[in-house]
Amino acid sequence: MSALYQSLVNGTMMGAMYGLTALGLTLIFGVMKVVNFAHGSLLMVGMFAAYWLLKITGMHPFLALLIVPPLLFVFGYYLQDLVIKPVFKSERGVREPLTVIIVTTGVWYVLDNLALMLFGAEYRTVRTAISGTSFSMGEVIVSWPKFAGFVVSMLTAVGLWLFMLKTRTGKALRATSMDREAANLMGIDQYKIYNVAFGLGTAIAGVAGCVIIPFYYVYPSVGVVFDIRAFIIVVLGGLGSIPGAILGGVVIGIIESTFAQFMTSTWTEAIIYGIFLLILFFKPSGFFGNKQDW
């Protein structure tokens, strides 16, 4: 029984971080109605930024949370403004412009190959004061890096939810996600809101990069690993749903951790993809998604 409890705890903590990686993806879709295929590459940028800050300045990845997410917000804001917005304008009136998906796919390949040219293909790890450390909760052993990542993930989700609910900009984001034409009529600049949404989604990817790097390898194509998980989680929880992203991440994390006790990782992956297909077939809006998004 203790092994089951250990798996549940590990799965919940890792699942929360999976949910964090999906949070920026679901925010961008919720506002812009576009699936950002470059999201994993933006996560990779955040991981490399935290890695090099540690190597060059000695700054702990959790302290890098004060620097990396703001920098990535600016990067995402102007990436949307300079690269993606012109495509949006050329397809004005189209609810889900497919050309934007192609552009984000191009950004994915550009970022991954740029990282490959600059840093090489080798896997890199970092060592911090809490790397490899743990504490006990009864019979359950809890990893300090993963526990800290879990806490940051939950705080980020709550902070984003409060931002969307309480602030003027958050209300503008929600209004644009509901009806962009009506929001325009109310004086909201939809393209500026798109910039903010993409910047926030990219900043959240930066947060995820900082909390994952203490216990995971970083390399140019690492984003693909988390991107696939993020897409499954977003579909499971509901496109555009903040609580859905966290819940979906926890569900996937628990399945991944628990089922691995009884079967090979190949079968665990098959179960995860099977659940993904079932959700698409029977409830494509996910647990918390809105039917109108589909």
What is this structure, in a nutshell?
The protein is built from eleven helices and two strands. It has helices spanning 2-32, 39-57, 68-90, 98-119, 144-166, 168-178, 180-185, 190-212, 222-237, 242-259, 265-282, and strands at residues 134-137, 140-143. A hairpin with a 2-residue loop joins strand 1 (134-137) and strand 2 (140-143).
Layout of strands and helices, then pairs:
Layout: H1 2-32, H2 39-57, H3 68-90, H4 98-119, E1 134-137, E2 140-143, H5 144-166, H6 168-178, H7 180-185, H8 190-212, H9 222-237, H10 242-259, H11 265-282
Antiparallel strand pairs: 1-2
| N-to-C SSE string, H for helix and E for strand | HHHHEEHHHHHHH
Query: C-alpha Rg, in Å?
Result: 19 Å
Count of helical regions: 11
- Largest sheet, order of strands side by side? 1-2
| General shape | globular
Distance between the termini: 41 Å
CATH fold topology: ABC transporter involved in vitamin B12 uptake, BtuC
Largest sheet features: 2 strands, antiparallel
Class by alpha and beta content: mainly alpha
Fraction in helix:
over 70%
Low-pLDDT ranges: none
- The assigned CATH architecture is Orthogonal Bundle
What's the count of strands?
2
Residue share in β-strands = under 5%
Q: What is the count of structural domains?
A: 1
State the name of the first-level CATH class: Mainly Alpha
How much is the average pLDDT?
88
